[in-house]
Amino acid sequence: MTSISESRAAAMVMSSETVTGAESRPGQSPVPSAQPAAAVAAALRPFEPERDTASPNRNLTPLTTALDGEGRLQVGGCTLSELARTYGTPLYVLDEATLRATCRAYRQALAAAYPGPSLALYASKANSSLAITAIVAEEGLGLDAVSAGELLTALGGGMPSERIVLHGNNKSREELALAAVQGVTVVVDNWRDLELLAELSPSFEQPVRLMLRFTPGIECHTHEYIRTGHLDSKFGFDPDQLETVLHHLLGCPWAQLTGLHAHIGSQIFELQPHRDLAGVMADALKLARDLGHPVTDLNVGGGLGIRYVASDDPPSIEAWVRTVAEAVAEACRQRSLELPRLLCEPGRSLVATAGVTVYTVGSRKEIPGMRTYLAVDGGMSDNPRPITYQSLYTALLADRPGAEASETVTVAGKHCESGDVLLRDIALPPATSGDLLAVFATGAYNASMASNYNRIPRPAAVLVHEGLADLVQRREQPEDLLRYDVLPARLTPVA
Ligand SMILES: Cc1ncc(COP(=O)(O)O)c(C=O)c1O
Ligand SMILES: N[C@@H](CCCC[NH3+])C(=O)O
User: Fold this and answer.
1) pLDDT of amino acid 47
2) Which of 98, 180, 332, 364 is found 20 to 30 A from 153 (Cα to Cα)?
């Protein structure tokens, strides 16, 4: 867990910063335009020992995190408690500057480290929305979708179809038809994909672009639920089948094999597995080209980890990209292969740190000699990661980040589930009903994995930038949850 006493010290320094006001809109605070960046960075240092503006994934908080004139937490120039007042809680807050900075970090690192063409594709499973798509598209990235829903969101958000790939280990006929009609590249995961595509092929106006996904047989250290590169995985062709599939595709005139894909897992801090992957993929590339497939793309997946708690120390985007790029270039050189276009698919490292969730504290239960529970107005339905992967998070009181963190509390959600705990045994200032809690690094795999467990509506999401806040996802209402229920006439209560 983060040392809150350290963050408190930082907060105290930051609260003395002067905040000069530009115009404000309802629910927003003045833009802290005169806040000296160096002073803020210095003030944050104890909280974020290695604050890294070039690689947001190495920080706990969004790049624009600051304190307003009253010592309250601000992100994107907006005071979190003001946002909570305007939009309610739980509230997902997404910092545009941090998201754009990560997009640029990937692009710049690829351009600097890889001698051939390259493209980073945003793995939209991390957080799929029209607004995020629009930003990512504008920043020149592509996108990885895994369902018709993510694909439609990508297209609706303005992502050019030639920069989209469709993944999935059990794609439906409809999903494949949509991809083909839209000119999206299909990442073939298994024989069923090929059967369905062959059935659909008479309707294709031109050959559909395909990538072939295989399991590279590479293990990495991350939670077993988010490992995908090992042989016992549901994703992709077994490497032993690769040659057979490649032969098969030579007889499919409706298909144009453009690339190969592998992904080893998520929230990975090691670089060596990515280095090893390059060799395995270069072998596959050689095999494909030797068989006559003019494969141009090598897609190495995503997986770079982020800092959730102070003790996490992930590699920078630059280091990850350089490792991958150099390993691919070297593996190709050793095999005398012309350089492919290098694709990667970052999800978490692109969007997680940009996100903060704001909750309102409700009930408080003190069990003498045991534990104090603070319950918030969300929980496992808006952030299922702690209950699913025992993930750790960092939190501060939104309006009193500088107060003395004199209590150890466990932050629980409001669901009927004992395991619905968001943060266990964290140090916080004494908090009571009505206080606002900001949980950091929730931009990835929170909104996108949210559920309606206990029929709790999903939170709203706002995009913040330079003092402006835009609603990008409306809050679900309890009535919305009844929209798909059907009460058969024979069960309808008689009035
Ligand atoms: C195929 C594929 N690509 C990309 C990603 C994104 O991974 P991450 O969010 O760890 O960057 C995933 C998720 O693990 C994935 O399954
Ligand atoms: N959902 C996982 C990551 C899985 C990535 C998709 N293959 C998480 O929250 O960490």
Assistant:
1) 61
2) 98
> What percent of the chain lies above the pLDDT cut of 70?
88
Among the listed residues 187, 208, 188, the one whose alpha carbon sits nearest the alpha carbon of residue 143: 187
Model's pTM, two decimal places? 0.91
Residue 34: predicted pLDDT: 31
Instruction: Answer yes or no: 416 catalytic.
Output: yes
Domain 98-351 bears CATH identifier 3.20.20.10: yes
Would you give the DSSP letter of residue 494?
P
All structural domains of the chain with their residue ranges: 4-89+356-377+434-480, 98-351
Q: Assign a CATH topology to domain 4-89+356-377+434-480.
A: Lyase, Ornithine Decarboxylase; Chain A, domain 1 (2.40.37)
Which residues, at least 6 apart from 92, have a Cβ–Cβ distance to it below 8 Å? Answer: 355, 356, 357, 382, 442, 443, 446, 447, 459, 460, 461, 462, 473
**Amino acid symbol at 277:** L
**Is ipTM over 0.90?**
yes
391-448 per-position pLDDT tens digit:
999 999 999 998 899 999 999 999 999 999 999 999 999 999 999 999 999 999 999 9
Q: How far apart are CA 438 and CA 394, in angstroms?
A: 8
Which among 124, 225, 226 is the best mutation to test ligand 2's pocket, defined by most ligand atoms within 8 Å of the CB? Answer: 226
Four-residue CA torsion sign, 403, 409, 412, 416: negative
- Structure confidence by residue, pLDDT tens digits, 59-105: 999 999 999 999 999 999 999 999 999 999 999 999 999 999 999 99
Query: Which of 78, 252, 332, 416 is labelled catalytic?
Result: 416
Model confidence at 36, pLDDT cuts 50, 70, 90, reads very low
- CB neighbours of 215 closer than 8 A, spacing ≥ 6? 228, 229, 230, 231, 233, 235, 236, 237, 238, 239, 262
Smallest Cα–Cα separation from 288: which of 219, 332, 239, 242? 242
> What distances in angstroms separate CA 116 from CA 92, 239, 256, 321, 326, one per listed residue?
38, 26, 21, 13, 11
CA distance 428 to 408: 6
Q: Which atom of ligand 1 is nearest to the CA of 187?
A: 1
